[in-house]
Amino acid sequence: MSGPPEPTTTALGEALGRTLAEPLTALTDLPSFDTSAMDGWAVSGPGPWRLDHPADDAATAPHPGILAGHAPTEALLDGHAVPIATGARVPAGATAVLRNEHGEVRSSPTAGGGCTHRGSHRPARTSARAARSAVAATNCSPPGPW
């Protein structure tokens, strides 16, 4: 019996069906930006928050929010909120994410639409921080078959 073959370096496209000889290490944080761990509203500062429209949106249409795969172009101002989807990039200036089920939108005759939390629920500050799939210099995949 000759034993296992010596490890070799193989291009990723040719690695299917091979066995990883040592752990695969992340070179950078993945994703490299903060993402929302839930559907809700990215908020800035204490509530209630004003729901704004980006400059290129019609103020009469419902705000589409920030979707996964789309990068927000403007920082979120203190006292403001924007709808956000799970996995979407959290805008600069956001201090937390308020879950959909913990908030509600209310109309105000003077300020337009606004978002507030329900009852004792408060935004989750940790949700506005990076939900990383991998962190630089950590093992992403243990040795073994691919």
What does this structure look like?
By secondary structure, this protein is an all-beta fold. It is built from no helices and ten strands. It has strands at residues 19-20, 24-25, 40-43, 49-51, 80-84, 96-99, 103-108, 112-117, 139-141, 144-145. The chain has a six-stranded mixed sheet with strand order 6-3-5-4-8-7, with no helix packed on it. A two-stranded antiparallel sheet has the order 1-10. A two-stranded antiparallel ribbon has the order 2-9. The chain starts with 18 loop residues before the first strand and ends with a strand.
Widest β-sheet, arrangement of strands: 6-3-5-4-8-7
pLDDT average, as an integer? 76
Distance between the termini: 24 Å
Oligomer: single chain
| Tally of separate helices | 0
The low-confidence parts are: none
Task: Decide which structural class fits the backbone.
Answer: mainly beta
Q: Assign a percent range to the helix content.
A: under 10%
Number of E-type strands: 10
* Radius of gyration based on Cα positions: 22 Å
